Amino acid sequence: MDRLFKSLSFRLALIYGALFCGSLALLFAAYFWLAVARPMGAIRAQVNEELATLEALYAQQGTTALAERLDARAEASTPFDRAFHTLIAADGRVVTTNLPSWPSTARRGFYSIEADVYVEGGEIDFSALSRDHVFPDGTRLIVGRDAEDVEDREDLALALFPGMIVLVLLLAIAGGYLMSRAIGHRIEAISGAARKVMAGRLGERVPVHGSGDDFDRLSDTLNLMLERNEALFDSVRRVSDNIAHELRTPLSRVQASLDRAATQGESDGTDLLATARAELARLQAIFDALLRIARIEGGRHDAGFAPVDLAAIVRDAVELYEPAAAQHRIAIALDAPPTLPVAADRDLLFQAIGNLLDNAVKYGRGGSTIRIALTGDADAARFVIANEGVPLQKGEAERLTERFFRGSAAGDLPGHGLGLTLVAAIVHRHQGTLRIAGDHARTAIELTLPAQRSN
Prior knowledge:
The longest helix is centred in the first third of the chain and has 54 residues, at 8-61. This protein is of the alpha+beta class. The protein has helices at residues 2-6, 8-61, 63-76, 148-198, 214-264, 267-297, 310-327, 346-362, 419-429, and strands spanning 83-88, 94-97, 111-114, 117-119, 122-124, 127-134, 140-146, 306-309, 331-335, 341-344, 369-376, 380-387, 433-438, 443-450.
């Protein structure tokens, strides 16, 4: 059910149902005003006008004239606009009436009186919308007009409208469910092909149904992209092979020279040369990292700040480190929007996120999950990565960005203690913030970048 409510097609169906219900409510309001409120208002106005006229007549000519006018009014009315009245003297005597019954005491405002008429065994329904008036001498006058048709329309509208709303909502939910299933199957086919490509099966393609609909056009576009990516990957692989081939010769010569020096020396000299070779490589990596950090912190890095998609950078980094994570039996869970634009240097951001992922994989516990959350608003973009693995002792999280500082539990693991220093320099270069929190089981790092850099 949770997956159903997360479906875009289902939510769109619900929104459409809500909009349709709103439109239906507006139409109902218009109908109610035209068919009920407006006619009912006209009847009330008519009764008020007649009552005022009859009050003036009674004040001038008395009971007899009023009774004659009421009888004439009743005789002049039509079956479609029937007039009703009751005139009761102060002593309780009924002077004239054409109502079958009425309230025993006068009421305030308008009220309805059942005024059914029986003719030759049949019943004709009338409802007298009436008003009471009691004269100073105690004489009571009830004046009304037939409102049966208007009240019937009102009762019918009020009875049908809730049922129509419920029916529309049920149809919207049912339609949303069916659309969600139909669209979900097509989306799952595209997602399945994407997962296979991410797993390394670059020849996988999205199935095309041949209907020519929007999904087929999207599938054709994705397949063209996958073909292009496969061709580019093959090209990069060939270039990498060429670079490796070109570099192999000078590196082999250096290695051969060190090996000859090692074999020609004494045993102690051999050990020293072996250690020197390992330390030489380690020092080279350290110096490269230090130079990068110094260039970034000193503003000497030629940063190419431009609008970039942070979500795409994160996905690329995750795709790069997923094979290494799988070797360590570590899963990567990514929660990110489709796009998240920021103004930044793409290469530096990729390097920072790559370092964070590298640390999470390197120091993660087998069988655990690296969780990545990417969010953003108009002011900033936030990247949070959390993993379970090497524990941090109290006070160590605040020092992890210091050069060469490593947690007490990470001393035996490979590394130089410069990765997070480089990340901090990159974040600072982007005028962002870096926060690190950790305990005995979990480490979380939050990287925040401004949506727009200040000049």
